[in-house]
Amino acid sequence: MKHPLLHVENIRQYFEKTVALADISLDLPEGEILTILGPSGCGKTTFLRVVAGLQRPDYGTIEIDGRTVNGPGIWVSPQKRSVAMIFQNLALWPHLSVKRSVELGLKEKGLRKAERAYIIGETLERLGLSQKSECFPHTLSSGEQQRVALARALVLRPRLLLLDEPFSHLDWELRQDLTCLIKGLETTIIFVTHDQLDAFAMEGLLAIMRKGRLEQIGKQDEAIKNPATEFVQNFVRKAASLLRG
Fold it and tell me: Hey, what domains does the chain have and what are their CATH numbers?
């Protein structure tokens, strides 16, 4: 039986007396998009940071591509997990051009100049940024900045891409454009958001999170047709009514 790309088992995370993650378990098949939907402060970003290796959980096991990266006596650094994470604030260096920003990770991997140039050119073309390679972040639109952040992650060929509220500062038209782009990446993705419409536009699998717990996970229509809890029913009601309309 083929292993899921991501296996998470009984992950717990405490911040002093606050429970940030409470026994989170899930399996994510390769090539799937999982959207984690929940209100602000429910633990979505904490979960991404734990999967990425930016934060070590207090308990639990994480496997990526059949390899344990977190567990009893096991800890694999973020750089060795084949995971890329795009933060809500994008974290673009203001003094670096698009090309130089995208190139940073490839330099760290020790790729030769010609190989770096090929990968960068191919990725920028794919994301519609070829004409912006020498531009700096402050000269780009919000949508273009988001694409640069995607390019910087994708050139590293990650097995798993983590997106933390990527649409929070974008208008609806840009959200639609980037949603289509992300769905066409053919990469295993975890996308977190507090916005119901963004979640349902992404398609794929849907997890509903509340107070550090997964209330429900499965196909999107299951949350609408067969909500597991009263919270799930109330939280997806807005999206369900608009989708029916």
Answer: 6-82+159-244 (3.40.50.300), 92-157 (no CATH)
